[in-house]
Amino acid sequence: MVATLTCKNKKHTLKPSTMVANNSTIVLFIGLFATLATFVSATDFIVGDEYGWTLSFDYQAWAKGKEFVIGDKLVFKYPVGKHNVFKVDGNGFQKCVVPTANESLASGYDVITLATPGKKWYICGVGKHCETGGMKLVIDVVPQSSAPISPPHVVPAPTPAPHVVPFGKTFMVGDDSGWTLNFDYQTWAMGKQFMVGDTLVFKYPTGAHNVYTVDETDFQQCIISIYTAPLTSGYDVVTLTTPGKKWYVCGVGEHCKTGGMKLVIDVLPRSANAPTPTPWSSYKGARRLGNTQGQGLGA
């Protein structure tokens, strides 16, 4: 097909290749606009606003009237060690029961990205904080396309400091290197004893990486379930609450598959007479993978 345009008595013929190129440019701009619209519409919600995540607060009244959209973030802010955050199902929410397979968020500044539509339930698993203290939140997340575009509300991230969990040991994943590309995390984990009550700290530049808890199959294949929300604060603290194998990966681009950002550990039960370990891992035997600097990895 050849299109002919007439302008001031001159005919201009558009070749098919030119028309295809122009169409490709239009499609590209449409895609960029859609991506920008999604970014602009994202909102960060500090749960409880200035009160944060605390006792005797009506979180359902707080959530009333708010529109939570895919891409938005919930920030649970509280004093470290006093509370935590568990993602549960509707039954666990109603009865304030934490499933044994779930792990708590316990950094004091827990950021949860809303990745899928539908109802989401969160509770505090400390003592009776959910049952009698009202520390429970349920929200309904709607798809991005059904929500109006609004200016972003940016929550400044604090500069967290390492902390010690009274009943366990804290491991900084990767030690001084943190959670990064081209690092052998299985060598790092070798020789360490992880026990129920210990915590893992994933430290990385905010926005560069994230942390997903996955199962063994997804770990081997570097696949992220659409039903799992990542940790994205840049200082993600995961408390090991149950024994058994635990798998973690980075879900950004090819960071897991080709960048080596995957960790599996075996968590042991904590015996009643187990000595209280000193905080922080001292094993420095981890090594870099290869000599690449992340060339070709998706961002």
TrEMBL record:
Keyword Repressor: no
Keywords: Copper, Disulfide bond, Electron transport, Glycoprotein, Membrane, Metal-binding, Signal, Transmembrane, Transmembrane helix, Transport
Full protein name: Phytocyanin domain-containing protein
Stored PROSITE patterns: PHYTOCYANIN
Main location: membrane
Lineage: Eukaryota, Viridiplantae, Streptophyta, Embryophyta, Tracheophyta
Membrane topology of this protein: Single-pass type I membrane protein
GO biological process: response to symbiotic fungus
